[in-house]
């Protein structure tokens, strides 16, 4: 299948900009609250793939929900190309989400599941079939368009959920541990699948992972966070020098993923000492 | 397991036996078993009729003949019509009240605790007491009859509905919100399909209970309807007519259950077939 592969977007200014984000969850009853984020700042350029790594409970999902606009009760400055998210969304900016579980509606076929998000994003009905066929063929699920999710394996369901996310041609794609519920071989195929479909759209991707090798394989950059409470970004590792398409056998990947593991260990260590 | 079978049959698409064949074969088998089961019931009835005086338990053939004769006259149709309209009214009342109670109990903790007490009372008070009390308060009329038939069913339905609403998957709602589905789309496409099975089950269950309640209230305090006729013929020691009227209504309810609700169910749950 020959789809037009888009050129990488030239990063001019950062697209997602978070400055000094603090997030406090209110406590219940006598228990005090939980400080989930304590001064997180990061900049992501359009078309970049950026990973967030850190021990569980450090606030990764919280950060993703803030960028998704699902959580608006935080302190600090969050802007998209200089404007607020609400303004951008009003102007047609689109955000898609891939969750750890596929979260497909079991009573709808794959096609109907994708139609749901196309409707939500206000695409004209005439565009639906074209978009659906395109994304399903990019994740090699064309033959299964009219199947119900429960007729497919977990890996296929997750591929469908990736297709659904790209169907709305998102400006930003957020992924929260998208492959962690799958076995390693399936996960490998899906990461390839993800990068393949991404190369046709070049959306900005911000993903959460707890797998060092996965984040090096996918990312242009990865941010390492410290354990909660009060999660912060401790370090960033640049991976742009590893050429795409990447191979799982690339020794540069192993080198870098070792660096990521070391960094994680170092910042976990702060807690122990 | 079903998925595995399915894939192997897709993979071996050249094979003669397809999945729909398997399903059809199973359906034929199930229909045959159901038929046998009906025959067995009629058989038991026949054996009973042989061993008891015909004034106590008339034979199935006698009852069916009486029923056929009744159906040729307008009276039975009028009674069936009256009873059906009471069932419809009572069902509507109990379903609406139960929906309000069930939803509020599922969505608000305060309402959950508050109405729980009512529900427990509602379940423990015998239907007979509720019906008689309502006849006393409202009078021996159709309003009291319909409310009396509806009231005992409400608590059970409300509990069903509460559980169904609590079972809505918050993760799918999260997905809908992340993709910025409007409220209307969230409700119609994410919430309704999840509570539809529960609504359908409650409808079936509710109608099943209500039609017995309606016969009961008619027998206790009305001068029309299938329940009244059954009581009337019972007083006359005419068991053939008692059973003929009962049988006519069993057929009506079977029609509603199988033809109407069954079709709706098959339409809604196509996705569960595999
Ligand atoms: N709604 C909430 N109310 C209170 N605390 C929360 C809530 N959501 C998350 N938290 C807490 O915030 C911390 C960070 O959560 P999360 O962002 O989900 O972590 P992770 O990095 O594992 O994705 C956790 O300790 C969690 O207990
Ligand atoms: Mg998380």
From TrEMBL, chain A:
- Looking at the record, the residues that make up the ABC transporter domain are 16-252
Q: State the source organism's domain of life.
A: Bacteria
SMART domains linked to this entry: AAA
Q: Name one GO molecular function term.
A: ATP hydrolysis activity
Q: Which InterPro entries match?
A: AAA+_ATPase, ABC_transporter-like_ATP-bd, ABC_transporter-like_CS, ABC_transporter_ATP-bind, P-loop_NTPase
Q: Which UniProt keywords apply?
A: ATP-binding, Nucleotide-binding, Transport
Please give the family membership noted in the entry.
Answer: Belongs to the ABC transporter superfamily.
What's this protein's name? ABC transporter ATP-binding protein
Q: Which organism is it from?
A: Nitratireductor aestuarii
Automatic annotation (TrEMBL), chain B:
Q: Which InterPro entries match?
A: MetI-like, MetI-like_sf
Name the GO cellular-component terms. Answer: plasma membrane
Taking every annotated instance into account, which residue ranges of this chain make up the domain ABC transmembrane type-1? 80-262
* Localization: Cell membrane
Q: How does it sit in the membrane?
A: Multi-pass membrane protein
Q: Which UniProt keywords apply?
A: Cell membrane, Membrane, Transmembrane, Transmembrane helix, Transport
Write down what this protein is called. Answer: ABC transporter permease
């Amino acid at each position: 299948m020959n789809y037009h592969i888009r050129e990488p977007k030239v990063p001019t200014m950062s697209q997602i900009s978070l400055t000094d984000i603090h997030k406090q969850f209110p406590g219940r009853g006598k228990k005090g609250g939980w400080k989930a984020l304590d001064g997180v700042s990061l900049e992501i350029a359009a078309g970049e793939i950026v990973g967030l790594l850190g021990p569980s409970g450090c606030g990764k999902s919280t950060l993703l929900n803030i960028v998704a606009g699902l959580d608006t009760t935080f302190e600090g400055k969050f802007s998209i190309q200089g404007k607020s998210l609400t303004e951008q969304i009003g102007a047609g900016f689109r955000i898609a989400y891939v969750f750890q579980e596929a979260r497909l509606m079991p009573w709808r076929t794959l096609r109907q599941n994708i139609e749901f998000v196309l409707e939500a994003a206000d695409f004209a009905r005439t565009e639906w079939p074209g978009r659906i066929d395109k994304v399903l063929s990019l994740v090699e699920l064309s033959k299964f368009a009219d199947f119900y999710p429960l007729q497919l394996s977990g890996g296929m369901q997750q591929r469908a959920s990736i297709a659904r996310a790209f169907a709305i041609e998102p400006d930003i794609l957020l992924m929260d541990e998208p492959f962690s519920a799958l076995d390693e071989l399936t996960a490998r195929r899906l990461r390839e699948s993800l990068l393949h479909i991404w190369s046709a759209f070049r959306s900005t991707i911000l993903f959460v992972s707890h797998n060092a090798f996965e984040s090096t394989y996918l990312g242009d950059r990865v941010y390492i966070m410290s354990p909660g409470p009060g999660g912060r970004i401790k370090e960033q590792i640049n991976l742009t020098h590893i050429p795409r398409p990447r191979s799982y056998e690339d020794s540069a990947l192993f080198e870098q993923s070792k660096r990521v593991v070391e960094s994680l260990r170092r910042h976990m260590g702060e807690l122990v000492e | 397991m079903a998925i595995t079978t399915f894939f192997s049959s897709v993979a071996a698409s050249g094979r003669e036996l397809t999945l729909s064949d398997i399903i059809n074969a199973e359906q034929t088998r199930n229909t045959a078993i159901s038929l046998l089961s009906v025959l067995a019931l009629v058989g038991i009835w026949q054996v009973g009729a042989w061993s008891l005086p015909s004034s106590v338990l008339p034979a199935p053939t006698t009852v069916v003949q009486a029923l056929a004769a009744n159906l040729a006259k307008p009276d039975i149709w009028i009674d069936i019509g009256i009873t059906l309209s009471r069932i419809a009214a009572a069902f509507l009342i109990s379903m609406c009240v139960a929906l309000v109670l069930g939803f509020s109990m599922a969505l608000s903790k305060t309402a959950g605790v508050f109405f729980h007490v009512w529900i427990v009372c509602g379940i423990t008070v015998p239907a007979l007491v509720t019906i008689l009390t309502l006849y006393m308060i409202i009078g021996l009329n159709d309003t009291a009859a319909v409310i009396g038939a509806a009231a005992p069913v409400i608590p059970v339905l409300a509990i069903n509905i509460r559980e169904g609403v609590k079972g809505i998957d918050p993760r799918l709602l999260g997905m809908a919100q992340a993709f910025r589905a409007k409220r209307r789309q969230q409700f119609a496409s994410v919430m309704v399909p999840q509570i539809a099975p529960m609504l359908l089950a409650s409808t079936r269950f509710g109608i099943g209970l209500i039609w017995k309640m309606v016969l009961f209230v008619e027998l206790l305090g009305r001068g029309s309807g299938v329940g009244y006729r059954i009581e009337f013929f019972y007083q006359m020691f005419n068991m053939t007519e008692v059973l003929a009227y009962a049988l006519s209504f069993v057929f009506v309810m079977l029609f509603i259950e199988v033809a109407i609700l069954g079709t709706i169910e098959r339409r809604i749950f196509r996705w569960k077939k595999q």
